[in-house]
User: What shape does this take?
Amino acid sequence: MFVREKPNKSGSVSVQVIDKSDGYRVVKTIGSAHDADELNRLVEVGKSFIARQSRQYCLFPKDEHDNAVILDFVQSLSNASIRTVGPELIFGRLFDDIGFDVIPEELFRDIVVARLVYPTSKLKTVDYLYRYRGKTISSESVYRFLDRLKDQHSYLAQQIAYQHSRKVLRHISVVFYDMTSLYFEAEDEDDLRKIGFSKDGKFQNPQIMLGLLVGENGYPIGYDIFEGNTFEGKTLLPVLKNIQKRYRFGKPVVVADAAMLSQDNLEMLNRQEYPFIVAARIRNETQAIQDSILEKCYGLISGQSVEIIRDDGYRLIVAYSDQRAKRDAYNRQRGLVRLRKRVGSGRMTKEHLNNRGYNKFLKLTGEVSIEIDEAMIEQAVRWDGLKGYLTNTKLSASEVIKDYGQLWHVEKAFRISKTDLRIRPMYHRRRGPCTGRLCGLYDLQGVGTSAA
Assistant: This one.
């Protein structure tokens, strides 16, 4: 048997195990890779599969080959499975390999592993450690430890996480930034916990804002915490400059969602010579640019793109995708079905004439009659499948699109933190004894997430 790399039409590469002992047979498809690192890992996993057929499999890694096997093994497990295999055997080994074992606090390891295996409140973590690990600790010792972690080890924990990411990535050339909100089960605000726009839908609860900077493939670089009513667009530059100054790496390409950066922020990034890539709101461009987009994009096939230089000198790259076009058409049709039903019911009024959702396809006829604007729908169809990217870099269009396509890793990190690690809601009612803008009882939710 041998491992075969098979290019796909989509640009990815499939890795398969082939057996030629009796004809030509695909024994197993290992997976598809979109970059060189993933391809190398899948090839090693394929080789390990062949080795297992010969009963030559090793659980504990001695080289990159075995590390790829362990990574594949861990990714195939759920938290429930790991409880059965043994948390220390899996998560404890990863904890040490990353380097967190240099922090001289045994409770740090216990809490991190417990958070991964049994994510719950700190009080229930104490119960978990007693029931399943045979360790007796008090809740007060946990809170005192969190203050020590913030005061004495927070910087080191973040540095270890960064150094591990740097080791994997080799160099920091592209970074991805996003923010989320973490709410408290409390009513009172203070100088950090503020009521603001909640991404969790908890608009009555005070919250804090967490800004996260990651590298390629979602490896963490750094984070910061802001007051709960902070406008997210004002956080990127402070986080970026502080982390860059701390770890002394060059100015990477900054990738962020369009909602994150205002025109002023883009100009500030450009003045300070930060290359950036953001999503462009192509339907909000000037009429001249919109006309140019539709003209240049007419007849594009999936995967092709065009480039337009805006008046401010930024490059506007517009790409077409068949898959996106089908999704745009499907979503519009589904919205129009509901809209036509509402118009047919006769319950639509002038108040419904706005640009929210698919109401933009409504128009007034006569004095009070409302109907669907079919011409506007035909105009909207012309934009199906188009997506814009705004950049000041000299990267090729394909590189710009590829880099922006990794932004989902930040969203995945937030989803894992909130869902799998259950870092919210938080129940702390007061600050701890530490000093400074951030206190351990607040900040260590973020530190614990980074360490895990």
Q: What stands out?
A: The first strand starts at residue 2 and ends at 7. The two ends are 38 Å apart (CA to CA). The longest helix spans residues 139-169.
